Amino acid sequence: MILLKRTNSDNPDFQRLVGELDKYLAIRNGDSNNFFVQFNQIDQIKHVMLVYEDEHAVGCGAMKEYDPNTMEIKRMFVPIGNRGKGIATTALNELERWAKELGYSKCILETGDDMNEAIGLYKKCNYKIIPNYGQYENVADSICLEKEIV
Prior knowledge:
This protein has 150 residues and is α+β, with helices and mostly antiparallel strands. The chain has helices at 12-29, 33-37, 87-101, 116-124, and strands at residues 2-7, 47-53, 56-67, 70-77, 106-112, 128-130, 142-148.
């Protein structure tokens, strides 16, 4: 049975999953990982989504305000053994619903240009590639995407 839980970054299941994500990204990103770490701190994140399957946290995502109309999606992760079950889509859809409830009209995000699984997920969920924003503006191996949620 799938259960969704809205929480914050103090949740130990979220902290565990993000620890796994950080290890995965350190290997995947190699030397460039240190640049991205500074933008992925999880302290003080108020909006975290966890997906549980049979009482085990099997996926997560978070969001934080980017501007008064926009939430930035952060820390999306499903461990490899749980991929292919729609868990990431479920988490992302629920984050979008939550953002809309809070009065935001758009979600944005950044991912690596070689993160084909993530890019596929976001495109499947109707995110469109946009020029890199903010701290990612001149980062060649970043791809930024957005979706209107109104």
